[in-house]
Structures are given as C-alpha cells and as structure tokens.
Design brief:
Blueprint: H1 4-8, H2 12-23, E1 30-34, H3 41-53, H4 67-74, E2 80-83, H5 92-103, E3 112-116, H6 124-135, E4 141-147, H7 155-158, E5 162-165, H8 171-180, H9 185-194, H10 198-205, H11 208-226, H12 231-242, H13 246-268, H14 281-290, H15 293-311, H16 316-328
Parallel strand pairs: 1-4, 1-5, 2-3, 3-4
Helix pairs in contact: 3-4, 5-6, 8-9, 9-10, 11-12, 11-13, 12-16, 13-15, 15-16
Length: 329
Amino acid sequence: MQIWEDIEKIQPVATRTLVNSIKKNRISHAYLFQGDRGTGKQEMALLLAKYLFCQNQQGANPCNNCINCQRIDSGNHPDMHWIEPDGASIKIEQVRNLQKEFTYSGMESSRKVYIIKDADTLTVNAANRLLKFLEEPNVETTAMMLTENGHAILSTIRSRCQIIDLQPLPPGVLQERLQQEDMSETDAKLLSTLTNSMTEALELAQDDWFAGARKIVIQWVEMYTTQPEDIYTFVHQNWIPHFKDREGQERGLDLLILGFKDILNQHIYTDANTILLSNDPSKSEKRLITFSQSQLLTILHQILMAKRKLKANVQPTLVIEQLALQIQR
C-alpha cells in the first residue's frame, strides 16, 4: 500500500486520524498501532515513516520515488530503525541500543524513526527502559509500536502514545477483493478467513511454504479417518520439519482449527461447504463418522490451548506431540 487512500479502503477511521494529524502538523512523538494480524499495522507505520522522510511529499502522501522512500521500502534508511523480538521477546539489551541511537543526531537529517514490532513481547525491564524514552521525547523522534495485544502493553507506555485501533476487515469483503484479483473462490475463501490483509493474502497465495503447510494440515486431519496409527510418525516426518518458527507453527495451528471447524460445520449444517478440507462426499462421511460434535469441540479447545503454550514459549515439538495424541484419543 503506497498511499493513504489505499489503506483507507480497509481502515477508514484509523487512516483519517493519521491523515488529519499530518495535515494539521500534529504528528505524535509515539504511536501504538493495535489490531489483529493482517489488519495493516506495519503498512500504516511504514507509510507514515516514508512521509516523515520523503523529499517530495504530495499532500499527506509520500512520493514513493525519492531516495528516502526507496530506502525505507528496501529497509536500508540509516535513520529508521526496526526492532523485533530476539527469540520470544524484546530484551533490555535491544532497548539499550535503541536508547543510544536516541542520543545521536540523524545521519542525514535531524529526524529519527523507530518501529517496534510485537511490542507486547517487551520484557518488564525492557518496557521500563523504553518508558524513559517516551517520558522525555525528542521533537524530531517518532516511535511506533505494533501489537496484536494492546492490553499487554504497560499502562504507563500506553498513556504516552497515541493509540491507533485497527479494525478487522470483514472476510466477505476481502474474499470479494481477492476474487477480483483472479484468485479462485476456494483460495479466496480460505485466505480471507486466515487474514484481514489483502497484501498478506496475495503473498500467501504465491508462497510455496504456505502451499506445503496447507497440504500437510489436510493430510493430518484426513489421516485420523484412514491411518490413525501413523499420526505420530507423520507429525515427526512432516509437521515438525515444515513448521520451524513460532509464526509458522501458529499458522499451522490456525489451519488445523479450520480443518476441524469444517467437520463441525458439516455436522451442524448438512449443506455446509468446507473452507480447508475437500467437499468429497465419501471423505466427508468418514470424517463425520470418526468425530462426534462433542469430540470436535474438545479438539478445537485443545488446539487453542496448544497456541497458548507456544506463546508461553513451551517447547514446540512437545506441544505438537501432545496435541496429536490428545486428538487421537
């Protein structure tokens, strides 16, 4: 998304708030962008950063062509710093390094911008250290924090930020937009269920890793109706090698939730169409025989618990092994 008008189509309220601030020259020294994954947090933060550094601003929009805009697009602007979790959290050492940067003048101008991804993963010490920056803002410094869980941010930090709430994009709207981009109805339906972001959906549609993830999850669910005795081996030979980092593991569990929701919906609605699994009548019948409605509700709860364990930094292999065995019972 290169201009505010693009983002306004999916985040009208948040976009108008930022554009009005730009037009009135009242840009805050700190922003907290909070919303679900795929709602445009990163796109909005980068667009604001480009505007701040742009050499040829066009109203509230950056030109997207000058050297500064191009550097930000490529992640190479010397006065824009990106911070994300080192492992499971953002540590105090990372914030100390950030604090040092705050004391220096910009390399090419007096302005500096910092974007902190997954700000809710700041350790307590790191968050308290960051708070000191926000209490004494430099007028030429803009900090932007991105989070899916705004309530996990220290109240003292929240109070020093302008909070930008991003709303989920209705799946039906996104599905329609994806189909307008020549995506099949099946793929558009699946991707609009997984993300609220047009950009992310289009990227996933072209991602070989995601295609592999989708195939593995479908095979795992179907194996419970055909070869349940081989589930444990399948998980070790296919799931664990493919889903290596936390983001990938969470994506895999999101797909697994959709798979079992498909079966539950077919129990409840005889004419229900699936989102992930095949609509083949013989396969559907086997799934309905294998899983009762009460079992499916339990399984969905177990998958959600597995997601919470991953966020709590429990060893991923152990989490998936336990989940596979729980579903099999």
